[in-house]
């Protein structure tokens, strides 16, 4: 039986370390505390490092079978060169099913983490193939001396990389011929690879 401490009104809360009730209560408290902490840590790993945001516009023209993309701007991009800032550009890749079909890219803008692009791209996608299409957007920092520096990525379409991306795709499908704009928070390569098979098909 556990030792009762002086002045306690409820024995089960006042038992010493040798008391079975006190140990069980303490164990349940620590276990429940861990459960409450887990979701914030595991469900939002991308929030550990802010990679920046990307503003995109999408629209689809059924009669022409064209999927049109406007890369409008980005903001607060992760700075890849501390001394000179980033020279960011966006690579846009069309994936059909699990096959890379086409790659296009914006120009790169020197020394900024808040670039304005306002560049338009068009992809040939027949209407019967639209449901199997994914667009992979990857932001890189241009590097002339070595490989470009990865900043962040999102996937929109069949294999979207998150709820926000899925919502943008659905809105576009429901409003043919009308451009639909939306901001997106960039994700890490590892996160996109984990949730989107289309991300695994591009570089």
Automatic annotation (TrEMBL):
<dbReference type="InterPro" id="IPR014705">
    <property type="entry name" value="Syt17_C2B"/>
</dbReference>
<dbReference type="InterPro" id="IPR000008">
    <property type="entry name" value="C2_dom"/>
</dbReference>
<dbReference type="GO" id="GO:0017156">
    <property type="term" value="P:calcium-ion regulated exocytosis"/>
</dbReference>
<dbReference type="Pfam" id="PF00168">
    <property type="entry name" value="C2"/>
</dbReference>
<dbReference type="GO" id="GO:0070382">
    <property type="term" value="C:exocytic vesicle"/>
</dbReference>
<keyword id="KW-0221">Differentiation</keyword>
<protein>
    <recommendedName>
        <fullName>Synaptotagmin-17</fullName>
    </recommendedName>
</protein>
<keyword id="KW-0677">Repeat</keyword>
<dbReference type="GO" id="GO:0000149">
    <property type="term" value="F:SNARE binding"/>
</dbReference>
<feature type="domain" description="C2">
    <location>
        <begin position="50"/>
        <end position="184"/>
    </location>
</feature>
<dbReference type="GO" id="GO:0030154">
    <property type="term" value="P:cell differentiation"/>
</dbReference>
<dbReference type="InterPro" id="IPR001565">
    <property type="entry name" value="Synaptotagmin"/>
</dbReference>
<dbReference type="GO" id="GO:0005886">
    <property type="term" value="C:plasma membrane"/>
</dbReference>
<dbReference type="GO" id="GO:0001786">
    <property type="term" value="F:phosphatidylserine binding"/>
</dbReference>
<dbReference type="GO" id="GO:0005509">
    <property type="term" value="F:calcium ion binding"/>
</dbReference>
<dbReference type="GO" id="GO:0030276">
    <property type="term" value="F:clathrin binding"/>
</dbReference>
<dbReference type="InterPro" id="IPR035892">
    <property type="entry name" value="C2_domain_sf"/>
</dbReference>
<dbReference type="GO" id="GO:0005544">
    <property type="term" value="F:calcium-dependent phospholipid binding"/>
</dbReference>
<comment type="similarity">
    <text>Belongs to the synaptotagmin family.</text>
</comment>
């Amino acid at each position: 039986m556990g030792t009762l401490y002086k002045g306690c009104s409820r024995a089960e809360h006042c038992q010493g370390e040798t008391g079975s009730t006190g140990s069980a209560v303490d164990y349940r408290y620590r276990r429940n505390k861990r459960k409450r902490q887990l979701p914030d840590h595991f469900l939002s790993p991308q929030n550990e490092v802010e990679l920046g945001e990307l503003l995109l516009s999408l629209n689809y023209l059924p009669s022409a079978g064209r999927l049109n993309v406007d890369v409008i701007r980005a903001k607060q991009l992760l700075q890849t060169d501390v001394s000179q800032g980033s020279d960011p550009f966006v690579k846009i890749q069309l994936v059909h099913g699990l096959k890379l079909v086409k790659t296009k890219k914006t120009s790169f803008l020197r020394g900024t983490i808040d670039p304005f692009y306002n560049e338009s791209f068009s992809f040939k996608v027949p209407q019967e193939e639209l449901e199997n299409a994914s667009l992979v957007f990857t932001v890189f920092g241009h590097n002339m001396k070595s490989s470009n520096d990865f900043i962040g990525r999102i996937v929109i379409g069949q294999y979207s990389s998150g709820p926000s991306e899925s919502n943008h795709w659905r809105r576009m499908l429901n409003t043919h011929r009308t451009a639909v704009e939306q901001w997106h928070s960039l994700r890490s390569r590892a996160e996109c690879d984990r949730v989107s098979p289309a991300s695994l098909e591009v570089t």
